[in-house]
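To make this tangible, we now present a fold written out as tokens:
***
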Amino acid sequence: MHSCLYKGGFFMGSRKLRTKALHAFGTLLLLVLSSPLAVLASELQVMPKEDVYVGREIVLSLGGTAVSQKMLFEWAVSGDVKPIFLRKEGAECAFTPTNPLPIEVRVLARNQEGQVVASSDIALQPQYFEVGIVKLDSAPLLLWDVLTKEERPTEDLPSGRPIRFRAELTPPYDGEIHFSWGADASTAILSNDGSPEVAIARSEVGDAEVTVRVSNAAGITLGTSSKTVPITLPASRLEDSARQKKAWEAWLEAESLWEQRDYAKAMDTAKRAAAAVPEDPDISGGIKAMSVNYGRVLRSLELQERGSGEKNRNALAEALKTYRRAKIAWPMPDIDTEIEALEKAVNAIRLQRQEAEWLRDTASAYDQEGQFQEALEYYNRAMKLVPSEAVEERVARITQRLALVAEADKLVIQGDKQEKSGRIVEAIASYRSSLELNPDEALGQHVKRLEDILNQRKRQAALLFREGVEQYRKKNEAEALLRFRESMLMWPSPDAEKRIAYIEKTVALPQNSVVRTPEDFGIGTKADAARLLRAGDTLYGEKRYREALAQYRKSFAISQDQALGGWIRKIERSLKEHEAVQASNKLIKEANSLYKQGHVPQAWAKYKESLTVHPNAEVEKFIKQIEKSLPAASRDLSSADQGK
């Protein structure tokens, strides 16, 4: 117990009490104020001016009639506080709590003879300031939507990018304060300069835990807090977004170049865009159309070069025909200029040429390019002007040809529907009937591929039938039934049907049995491959990556599309990486929990185990910090326990 005295406005006491905080008990202040009149205890009160917080000065003032009379007042303060000050001639007492332990204050009023005539007690309970951690607003991340072709904001927090937070005290603190920030082992603190704001970054997805301790200039802790935020957006998604947006911008550039008639550069740019983002359906579909048109452009250029040679040889009529064919293949301004010039030249040389001849030439050009309907229209117009037996024969030939082509087209459409519904035998028959009417090399190749698929199915059906017979001999009736069913799906046969009917009298397939289809054996048509690819795209869009991968693999087994193969390998790598990160994060969380519970050796072993699943630079750095204070024997023991 220490004492000091305030008298006549002068503070008396030891220098130690005036300059140093009290850490146990202290008795302070005697103030001479008044007369020998008796004062009742109820007329002396100690009143705090505001709530009591650790690290903030609290001012106690005296109230009651005793304050207005000349008395000696003695203050006694019990608790952990900083230096105590008297103000207003002893009517106020001020001090700063240093921790949240209770503080007791007693005030005695003495007359001039030193007798205690009144007293008052008060108990104070300091509390820490409430510390709130809030995430600072920042410009929202924009992710590219492949389907809508626009950037959409996301509230998800990304890995590998700074995230800012701010700590706020409630109630506000007027003095100088210092903020000390911390984070979990997988989260990096990018700035820690004692300010209320901090920036963090996490190298992979997971929960980031941020802590802060707030202290004043004297080093007294005002309060602490922590906040856990989920980091759910991997950096790879941001990279994909940038790649998809850049590819779309390249595609728009390709379209612009095409409009400017810079066809070669447009095609090259479009190919790069499609290669960068094979998953963009608009670019994939667009480049197919552009490739077809580019073939027409090349054909037009070839014809223009031929026409130029004919013009140089003075074969103006032939050159005119060639340039007209070039325009039909793909219109260009230069072609119109050449045609106009050639027409003037031909008209000057052949004044007697009539419009009928021009119509016949145009019809012939359409005829040679395989555009028969247009050719027929021009031949009919020529016939109205100048009837000609030769033209009449051509009209009859084209009319018959168009009828055959129309019937052949109907059969192709019919075959396509049959093929898509799985009726391949009927589709082949329709296609062959079409080929008889209108020979087509591409369709013939397609029919050959379908026949090859049928042969594969027959061979696979026979193999599955033999396996079923073998399983039945081994008394594996359920397995035999499964093989016979698969054989029927490959290619129906009476023998397989009879065996299924016989076995099903006594045996049923287990509910979890999977009957494989031709697609599971890599047997199918292009339509099957396209259907499986679309199914994979739908599942991928729904983030059901494992199921999407299964569909992609089936499609690849049929089509052997190398671009799809590359996409499959990329998904496999991403899934493997994602699963490794998830497993590592789980081990890190377990290690964090052990570390917080004080089980440092076990936490060290768990951190080490996480590195075997997936590398993490932050964890490696934290392990080194632990190893500096952890004896080698403890690490060996923890490693042995972990192995058990």
About this structure: The radius of gyration is 46 Å. The chain has five domains: 5-127, 131-233, 243-403, 453-524, 561-643.
